[in-house]
């Protein structure tokens, strides 16, 4: 990314180092001056080759013994058919060696990915880019993204680690991981009875990001300029690369995270007014009260192309993915920006992502009970909206499944924030433990449907509705299925259990 005269790198900002974590510096300002060997020096430019590994922290005897015990526990879990063993491995290690994350992270360069939605897919895409360029990348690509899952990933090998981290655990893990890149994509409501209010999460991120690089690391934040909560959270980081990818969900971004006044979004009255420097801000967001606004981005996703700034003008990189939908193009653009900070050119990174198919079961075509179905995961209102976009104009029968177990959150009132009205005209079957709640919500939305309690029965009922009008004669088109977390896992279990 090239430097604009007098403003530092395009799409890059930095606060003067050493300030308090709660300072209110406006994002998007000039970068902090730094010498080549100072802690504030910018990371290597794209194409500079593999990022250097920091000197390894000493892995103590306690952690080495805990590693052996955890590995044995994980193997036992796999042999017994209880799961992949990632979580139990990490739990055993952490019980025996509480400092394991800190000690193991020092053995490699770590990129950390966090968001409410899209972090598993983005982690997978970034892993593909780095593995193609450097090889030997380890990751918790299965979605085990809390402390135990992070430890398990760090035990997998000595190479670079790309780590997905749950948004609630990011602030606590950052000081131990000291990552080279922190990739922050979005914050929205999720699991109302488990997850903190979004501004509280952003405040925790903000405090943690102020400490990046204080241990001699060179952590840079790659952040979504189109999410006001992410921008405010990243405002304390020493170095930020801003990326614009757009958003299909703005309901959690209506108030300013700094002063709590109403934000002006694209299309609102006042949008398109000239900023203080005379530059038009059309397409961005801003607070007319305190001045917080969308920072100028470096990489920009427009439609199906990523535009990268360069000395000769923006370079255009087509985003061609096996994964469907604009939401995944957003994920790919964010991953490409992070890869560039780790020495992989944007075009090379995007090319390496082309063949990534299903991600931990998401977007996979499966078969259970004789029914072929396309499985999607949606855990919160923003995620459901993204999946509506991914399904597009599909006229296949549709199964919607909602549970309310611990991993889902017990409170299902969030379903009233999902615009199910968009499903009018589709043939819908409702299933899951909270099928009655979802059925009522669909009735309010005017969506015709039938309710079948168990998941296998719902798949068969949907198949019995027949293919959509767009299906070719004789084609086994299948069924679209969207489930929240435990419903999604139960549907995968129908396949793994041999219900074919």
Automatic annotation (TrEMBL):
The lineage of its organism: Bacteria, Bacillati, Actinomycetota, Actinomycetes, Kineosporiales. Coiled coil: none annotated. Pathway: Cell wall biogenesis; peptidoglycan biosynthesis. The keyword GTP-binding does not apply. InterPro entries: Lipid_II_synth_MurT (IPR043703), Mur-like_cat_sf (IPR036565), Mur_ligase_cen (IPR013221), MurT_C (IPR013564). Residues 116-244 form the Mur ligase central domain. Residues 26-39 have a biased composition (Low complexity). GO terms for biological process: cell wall organization; peptidoglycan biosynthetic process; regulation of cell shape. Residues 40-53 have a biased composition (Pro residues). It comes from Pseudokineococcus lusitanus. It comes from the Bacteria. Its EC number is 6.3.5.13. Keywords: ATP-binding, Cell shape, Cell wall biogenesis/degradation, Ligase, Metal-binding, Nucleotide-binding, Peptidoglycan synthesis, Zinc. Residues 377-487 form the Lipid II isoglutaminyl synthase (glutamine-hydrolyzing) subunit MurT C-terminal domain. It catalyses: beta-D-GlcNAc-(1->4)-Mur2Ac(oyl-L-Ala-gamma-D-O-P-Glu-L-Lys-D-Ala-D-Ala)-di-trans,octa-cis-undecaprenyl diphosphate + NH4(+) = beta-D-GlcNAc-(1->4)-Mur2Ac(oyl-L-Ala-D-isoglutaminyl-L-Lys-D-Ala-D-Ala)-di-trans,octa-cis-undecaprenyl diphosphate + phosphate + H(+); beta-D-GlcNAc-(1->4)-Mur2Ac(oyl-L-Ala-gamma-D-Glu-L-Lys-D-Ala-D-Ala)-di-trans,octa-cis-undecaprenyl diphosphate + ATP = beta-D-GlcNAc-(1->4)-Mur2Ac(oyl-L-Ala-gamma-D-O-P-Glu-L-Lys-D-Ala-D-Ala)-di-trans,octa-cis-undecaprenyl diphosphate + ADP; beta-D-GlcNAc-(1->4)-Mur2Ac(oyl-L-Ala-gamma-D-Glu-L-Lys-D-Ala-D-Ala)-di-trans,octa-cis-undecaprenyl diphosphate + L-glutamine + ATP + H2O = beta-D-GlcNAc-(1->4)-Mur2Ac(oyl-L-Ala-D-isoglutaminyl-L-Lys-D-Ala-D-Ala)-di-trans,octa-cis-undecaprenyl diphosphate + L-glutamate + ADP + phosphate + H(+). Signal peptide: none annotated. Forms a heterodimer with GatD. This is Lipid II isoglutaminyl synthase (glutamine-hydrolyzing) subunit MurT. Belongs to the MurCDEF family. MurT subfamily. GO terms for molecular function: acid-amino acid ligase activity; ATP binding; carbon-nitrogen ligase activity on lipid II; zinc ion binding. Zn(2+) binds at residues 256, 259, 287, 290.
């Amino acid at each position: 990314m090239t430097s604009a005269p007098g403003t530092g790198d395009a799409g890059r900002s930095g606060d003067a180092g050493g300030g308090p974590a709660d300072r209110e510096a406006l994002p998007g300002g000039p970068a902090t001056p730094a010498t080549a060997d100072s802690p504030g020096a910018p990371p290597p430019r794209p194409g500079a080759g593999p990022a250097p590994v920091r000197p390894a922290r000493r892995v103590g005897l306690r952690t080495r013994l805990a590693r052996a015990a955890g590995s044995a526990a994980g193997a036992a879990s796999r042999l017994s058919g209880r799961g992949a063993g990632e979580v139990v491995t990490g739990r055993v290690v952490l019980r025996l060696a509480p400092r394991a994350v800190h000690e193991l992270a020092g053995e490699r360069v770590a990129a950390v990915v966090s968001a409410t939605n899209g972090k598993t897919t983005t982690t997978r895409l970034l892993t593909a880019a780095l593995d193609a360029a450097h090889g030997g990348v380890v990751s918790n690509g299965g979605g085990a993204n809390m402390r135990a899952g992070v430890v398990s990933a760090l035990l997998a090998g000595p190479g670079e680690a790309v780590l997905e981290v749950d948004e609630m655990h990011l602030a606590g893990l950052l000081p131990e991981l000291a990552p080279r890149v922190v990739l922050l994509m979005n914050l929205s409501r999720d699991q109302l009875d488990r997850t903190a209010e979004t501004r509280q999460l952003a405040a925790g991120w903000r405090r943690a990001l102020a400490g990046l690089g204080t241990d001699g690391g060179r952590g840079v934040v790659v952040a979504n300029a189109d999410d006001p909560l992410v921008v405010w959270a990243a405002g304390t980081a020493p170095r930020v690369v801003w990326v614009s990818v757009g958003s299909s969900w703005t309901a959690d971004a209506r108030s300013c995270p700094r002063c709590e006044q109403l934000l002006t979004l694209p299309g609102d009255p006042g949008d398109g007014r000239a900023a203080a420097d005379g530059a038009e801000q059309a397409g961005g967001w801003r607070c007319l009260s305190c001045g917080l606004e969308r920072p100028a981005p470096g990489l920009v996703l427009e439609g199906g192309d990523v535009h990268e700034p360069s000395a000769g003008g923006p370079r255009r990189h087509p985003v061609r993915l096996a994964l469907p939908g604009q939401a995944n193009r957003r994920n790919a653009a964010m991953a490409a920006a992070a890869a560039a900070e780790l020495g992989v050119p944007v075009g090379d990174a995007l090319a390496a992502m082309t063949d990534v198919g299903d991600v931990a079961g998401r977007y996979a075509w499966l078969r259970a009970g004789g029914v072929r179905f396309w499985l999607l995961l949606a855990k919160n209102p923003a995620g459901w909206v993204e999946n509506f976009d991914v399904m597009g104009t599909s006229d296949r029968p549709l199964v919607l499944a909602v549970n309310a177990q611990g991993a889902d959150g017990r409170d299902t009132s969030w379903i009233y924030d999902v615009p199910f009205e968009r499903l009018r005209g589709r043939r819908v079957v409702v299933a899951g433990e909270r099928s009655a709640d979802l059925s009522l919500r669909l009735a309010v939305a005017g969506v015709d449907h039938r309710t079948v309690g168990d998941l296998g029965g719902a798949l068969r009922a949907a198949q019995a509705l027949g293919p959509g009008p767009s299906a070719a004669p004789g084609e086994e088109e299948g069924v679209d299925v969207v489930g929240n977390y435990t419903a999604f896992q139960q549907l995968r279990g129908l396949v793994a259990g041999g219900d074919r």
